[in-house]
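Figure S4 source data
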Amino acid sequence: MRYKHPNGQKQALIAFLTLILSVCCSRAQTNHYVDLNSPSPVPPYLSWTTAATNIQDAVDAAVDGATVWVTNGIYRSGGAAGYPAGGLVSNRVAIYKPITLRAFSDDPKDTVIEGRGPLAEPGWPIAVRGVYMVDGAALIGFTVTNGYTMEDVPGPPEDESGGGICAQSRDAVILNCVIVGNHAESGGGGVYGGTVKNCVLVGNESHGSEGGGAYDSLLIDCVLVNNISDDYGGGAFADGLTLSNCTFQGNTSSSG
């Protein structure tokens, strides 16, 4: 089943291109590097020979507008807590500044960001989301998998949202990614927020709220398959949801 919002394809494309230009054209040319097998990581990781061994170290070292390049591997260590501000959930990668995080390979299967589960209650800091992103950040070319959120926590709502990726708003860009097998207690098992372009969202689950695949995202040229919501919107859900040229298959929900 394919869905096109009235005039949505043109409007979504214009919005996406405008966002990309606003993000990219103001970026500095500084590059930082990440290699899981780097023999001699040296901050600020300005070459492949001194590359960081986990992504968060390079993100921390990057300046606004920089690009962090990540080579092939499964990145399941490192990370940061406290994003969004006051949050309890940990993030395998927290992009808390306007930078681009980009896989070196053109195939998202080659570069994997892996969270950790299960869903966690207060006092049991087990859950690790895949990626958190602020406005102006970009994530390009990754597989994001096995991300989890907290449940029944008193912190910000984002603690329970976006098991794979939680974006501050649609002013964060997610491009050419595979988002698979992530879990959230609240909205967006796969993705919460963000402008999501040319991505595949498969097998994600929202356990207590809407949007098994995505919640409150702008989705362009995406494929959503076998996502599950325990409430509304097995594939995607939001007030004012915008979809352009997207394909939905085999998504399920308990309430429509």
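Figure S5 source data
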Amino acid sequence: MANSPAEPEVLPRVAPYKWLTGALVLVFLRVLPALRFPIGRDEATYCVIGQGLLRGQVLYRDLWDNKPPGIFYIYAVIVKIFGARMWSIGLIDVLWLLAISICIFYFAEPFLGAPAAALAVVINALWHCSWGYIHAAQPETFATLFVFLAYFLLASKRLPALWSGIAAGLLCGAVFWVKYNTAPLILAVAFLPYLDFSDFDKEPRRVGLNISWKAWFTRTLYLAAGFLIAIFGILIDFWHSGGMPALREVQFEVLPRYASTFLDRMPHYWSFAISLINLHLGIWTEAAFGTALVLAWWRRELRIIAPVVMMAVAGFISTASQVRFSSYAFETAYPFFAMIWGYDIVTAAKGFEYLRGYFKHRSWRLATALLWIAAAQAVYFPLPDIAYTVGEDYRGFADWMRSPWQSYANYAFQIPLEKLHDQLAIID
């Protein structure tokens, strides 16, 4: 709206930390019932292997799974701290969601503003919590947190470039060892802190660097050095422990065949992929992505949304490269699509206020009333599902407080294959 009057203020001028505090309170209230989570089959495997690592067993030789080694080292730390306690995974999920919520806010706020960043925090939490224990403490969740931390290190102007670059490289190496397919996110983080989008809304549209090419090259060398230290550090550890042949067999022979088998046995793969994208990401979110691009182009705000779009695309490619489109794989993309929703909602609020003022100026009372009805419908639309889900989670949380073991056995939203009641009966 380049030729329109100045937009009215539709949201109160509140300090960013107050927006963040309010969002974190809502996130905490939403995620608190996660303490009742049972341990899913993936997380149980990570725990068992983590216990084995603490006993000195060698990964892939004495302990077998086909996932990259990073997640098992993380779970070794979790098991070391909490021991064999079922609620530990739920507690880790609570702490993780609060940590990544802070990261989402501080990533989005400089680009989109505090209100949109706070909305992104809440929306991401709603998405994550809606999947229950299936998404708790999965490799993608840890990888995404490390990606944010690496970005903040690279973007920091207070830390020496050498140490921030090496530390970010170590984190990127950790991301790689947790999930190989996160390579697009690693590449995006390596470039994004140094990109200048200030001329992206002008003709011709240009993207430059906010530092000199020489400084960029030097900092990228520091990042690469940290990354290689992390990569070769793990390889040297496997070589020293005698686990290198097993690592090579599992990661270079078994894992590629595991992925290709799914493609070979899945007829009409592309139809299957599209259906799972629509299920896990949502048609409305896909529409929100396109809407944000159109709005940003029209409002000449491509420069502020481009970094978010860049990371959303990288996160989605990371998800898609897994081939299987599991729901928890979308955790690498959810935070950035939540930011896009935040931008759309704040922009819609500005549009609403602009139209309301315009209708009031023209004395169009019916149009004003209809506008309020449309706005109320938009706000109400997601609320029933959210209220039902939150209510059920807190009902289950109350059951867990009364009898944890019975709560685990009768967990309502379990994967049918897991048969938690029978598993816990055997354990008992």
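The CA atoms of residues 9 and 363 lie 21 Å apart. The longest helix spans residues 213-241.
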